[in-house]
Design goal:
Distance between the termini: 19 Å
Order of helices and strands: HHHEEEH
Number of helices: 4
Strand order of the largest sheet: 2-1-3
Largest sheet: 3 strands, mixed
Number of strands: 3
Shape: elongated
Helix content: 40-55%
Amino acid sequence: MPVFKQYDEDEVGQLTQSNYAFLEKLWENKPFKGTLTLRQYLTAEQTPEGEARDELVKLGIPIDPETRLVVVDIENPQTNKIYGGKLDSQNEKFYVVMLPNKPCNKQPEEPDPNKSKAENALVEQGAQKAYTEAQAWHAAWYHAISDGGGM
């Protein structure tokens, strides 16, 4: 069966917002369930498919209960997961949740000699946050309008 994605052109704005919120949670590196981050939770062996799907739906990523869930983690490829074991892609509907790596490509700016080391560090931290936010919005918008894979 082909890759399945629910799509409604009237919902693109809301889906963009949901995708952004998902990426923000994915990249914030804070506990999501217990001590696990969202990335760790979605790729953990002990996380049941139904529970993972329910959490994704709560985060605004609609996944039909009849659709198998596949997680592809770009940052840690050894943790890729097909919920429910082997997937028969010819006969089963499936949804791929792609976990992108956290953007970290912001080029450092030259320190301002008139500022303290701490002030320069805050400026650099703000630039990295702005870069990460811009990448999240771009990815959120793209995946909201794309009729291809998943998030």
